[in-house]
Specification:
This protein has about 625 residues and is an alpha+beta fold. It has four domains: about 220 residues, Heat Shock Protein 90 (2-Layer Sandwich), CATH 3.30.565.10; about 180 residues, Ribosomal Protein S5, domain 2 (2-Layer Sandwich); about 80 residues, Rossmann fold (3-Layer(aba) Sandwich), CATH 3.40.50.11260; about 110 residues, Up-down Bundle (Four Helix Bundle (Hemerythrin (Met), subunit A)), CATH 1.20.120. The protein contains 21 helices and 24 strands. The protein has a nine-stranded mixed beta sheet with strand order 1-6-5-4-7-3-2-8-9, covered by helices on one side. It has a five-stranded mixed beta sheet with strand order 10-11-14-12-13, sandwiched between helices. Strands 17-19-18-21-20 form a five-stranded mixed beta sheet. The radius of gyration is 32 Å and the shape is elongated. About 5% of the residues have low confidence.
């Protein structure tokens, strides 16, 4: 083995994170022990799982445990485990970089003020670096299970770290904290015992520490177990309080914020199952792109795998927690999970329990929550929707079995008033003569509110849902209806508004009266529009473009093209407002060149009103300038 001491420089984002940890989280420094114990427990979990198939891996050291070793004279605290251990490469990768966390991208996007916000730290996944809250320097000695070589990693968090060969008699890892002068209490017995009891009592592996027992001449040093070592999810709800649930979540997820909500359940019968699922308060910055989840699978309290995608659908990837099955085999693999009937049962339970939790939140009124250190009255479901609504919509599209229940959890903006609105509330407010749920899709809320397509609907007192997410129109296409009321796009087909016989006759007469003019407009715009017709959709605007009733909207076309898909150009229908002064004046124009300019201007104006740029912005500008000059 080489005896060379290697010097490595931390990745740039690690330095930033270390600075953030040391300078912004000082008042929360006791959590360092929770994080390091959690890491040690993960290492033992991994070893325990591998030993199910690699039977010689444990060797003679089968008593899996975490040890806390205090040295008040040397002013050190060591967190020792006999878990899976790390190789030289893993020490460099895991402790010298944050290569897969996306932290650099996030750090670059933070303002100076945001970097001071301790609630952001949970987004980095930097549990190990919390050691520097209490330590001037940290030494890690590790030996990989199945290897004879041990390695030492050491750093003072000043921009670099060293890696060199070391000595360790058995597999596992020692994290040795050289404590700061103002953190000496963490080399003492009772502060350590209190932190373990507070944060890590649930850890399933025994956390042991040497303490002085007895009195007088009977005093002796003994190893004792500090934690109850009983999986939290197996305990009765009546035994637990909110603080215990919250601390378990923080240790499990490495999130420094409290969870928004959780559900603790047990299922008994043909299959036995226990679980504890959490909804975080904040979405990670890469939630939409990231496809990994955060639910761990256990079998009979034995850790099997992180990110159990086979039991948690992709659209619930925001969940954190654990699921523990009594029925799956201990040597279960992802391939077995994909085909197993028990897996399908577990997945159904996870989906059902989560939807029930969200339904309860949706019914809940305002509650007091501490947000960024300030107590506010909030509706928890609205908080959830703003953070995770985009991902939940994926479930409406992909999960046919859950679609109806998920539809009740959807929230949209509305033309009636500000805030979020559910479909149940919309239907309850519908006038007696309204038969459909109307919506309009746009790139922004301001564009949707100003859309010419909804003018007549608003005038009649019909509420319109304002959809600004790129996925919204596909969601509506998948749903088709809600509570027996069909979804109707204000920008597609004929609105088929309730009208009297007199109104129908008047509309037909206008279409007939303007027929010659419509033919002239059609001739000018034939390359761009399918047909031209008068409309009752508009009250204030002169024109708008609509798609066929069952066609793709212009916005859907644009989204698909931006995603790299080939989409054939579809001509749309140009609708003119026969009562608008511009349309009436156009009818009287005899100069064909001027008429052509006006027709092109109306078409380009209709594009702009829906948020689309004209095909030839320069020509549009020239026409507007010429019209202004004549005016």
């Amino acid at each position: 083995m080489s005896t060379t001491v290697e010097k490595h420089v931390f990745q740039a984002e690690v330095n930033e994170v270390l600075s953030l940890v040391v300078n912004s989280l000082y008042s929360h420094r006791e959590v360092f022990l929770r994080e390091l114990i959690s890491n040690a427990a993960d290492a033992i979990d991994q070893l325990n799982f591998r030993s199910l198939t690699e039977h010689t891996l444990l060797g003679g050291d089968k008593d899996l445990r975490i040890e806390l070793i205090r040295d008040e004279k040397a002013n050190t605290l060591t967190i020792r485990d006999n878990g899976v251990g790390m190789t030289r490469e893993e020490l460099i990768s895991h402790l010298g970089t944050i290569a897969r966390s996306g932290s650099k991208k996030l750090m670059q996007s933070l303002s100076a003020e945001q970097k001071k916000d301790i609630t952001l730290i949970g987004q980095f996944g930097v549990g190990f670096y919390s050691a520097f809250l209490v330590a001037d320097s940290v030494t890690v000695v590790s030996r990989k299970a199945g290897s004879e070589d041990a390695w030492v990693w050491e750093s003072e968090a000043k921009g670099d770290f060293e890696v060199r060969p070391g000595q360790r008699n058995q597999r596992g890892t020692d994290v040795i904290l050289h404590l700061k002068d103002d953190a000496k209490e963490y080399a003492e017995e009772w502060p350590v015992r209190e932190v373990v009891r507070k944060y890590s009592d649930y850890v399933r592996w025994p956390i042991k520490m040497e303490v002085e027992q007895g009195h007088g001449d009977d005093k002796k040093i003994e190893w004792i177990t500090l934690n109850a070592a009983r999986a939290l999810w197996t305990r009765s709800k009546s035994e637990l309080d909110d603080a215990q649930y919250q601390e378990f979540y923080k240790a499990l997820s490495h999130d420094w914020q409290e969870p928004l909500a959780w559900t603790h359940f047990k299922v008994e019968g043909t299959h036995e199952l226990a679980g504890l699922l959490y909804i975080p308060s904040k979405a990670p910055f890469d939630l939409v792109e990231k496809r990994k989840g955060g639910v761990r699978l256990f079998v009979k309290r034995v850790f099997i795998m992180d990110d159990a995608q086979e039991i948690v659908p992709e659209w619930l990837r925001f969940l954190r927690g654990v699921v523990d099955s009594e029925d799956l085999p201990l040597n279960v693999s992802r391939e077995i999970l994909q085909k197993d009937a028990t897996t399908r049962f577990i997945k159904k339970q996870v989906v059902g329990k989560t939807i029930s939790l969200l339904e309860d939140l949706a019914k809940e009124g305002e509650t007091e929550r501490t947000v960024d250190g300030e107590t506010k009255k909030v509706r928890r479901y609205e908080t959830f929707w703003e953070e995770f609504g985009r991902v939940l919509k994926e479930g409406v599209y992909h999960d046919i079995e859950s679609r109806e229940r998920l539809a009740g959890l959807l929230r949209f903006h509305s033309s009636s008033n500000d805030g979020w609105h559910g479909l149940q509330d919309y239907v309850a407010r519908m006038p007696a003569d309204q038969k459909s749920i109307y919506y309009v899709a746009a790139d922004s809320l301001a564009t949707a509110k100003a859309s010419p397509h909804i003018e007549a609907l608003k005038k009649r007192g019909f509420e319109v849902l304002l959809m600004t997410d790129t996925i919204d129109e596909w969601i509506v296409d998948a749903l088709r209806e809600f509570d027996g009321k069909p979804f109707v796009s204000a920008a597609k087909g004929a609105l088929d508004l309730p009208e009297s016989d007199e109104q129908k006759q008047a509309k037909e007469e206008k279409q007939k009266h303007f027929g010659p003019m419509l033919e002239r407009v059609q001739k000018v715009l034939d390359a761009n529009v399918k047909t031209v017709r008068v409309t009752d959709r508009l009250t204030d605007s002169p024109a708008c473009l609509v798609s066929d009733e069952h066609g793709m909207s212009a916005r859907q076309e644009r989204v698909l093209r931006e995603a790299g898909h080939e989409v054939p150009n579809q001509k749309r229908i140009l609708e003119l407002n026969p009562d608008h002064a511009v349309v009436k004046k156009m009818e009287a124009l005899q100069d064909e060149a001027q008429f052509a300019d006006w027709s092109s201007l109306l078409y380009d104006q209709a594009l702009l009103a829906e948020g689309t740029l004209p095909a030839d912005p320069a020509a549009f500008s020239k026409r507007v300038a010429a019209l202004m000059a004549k005016a």
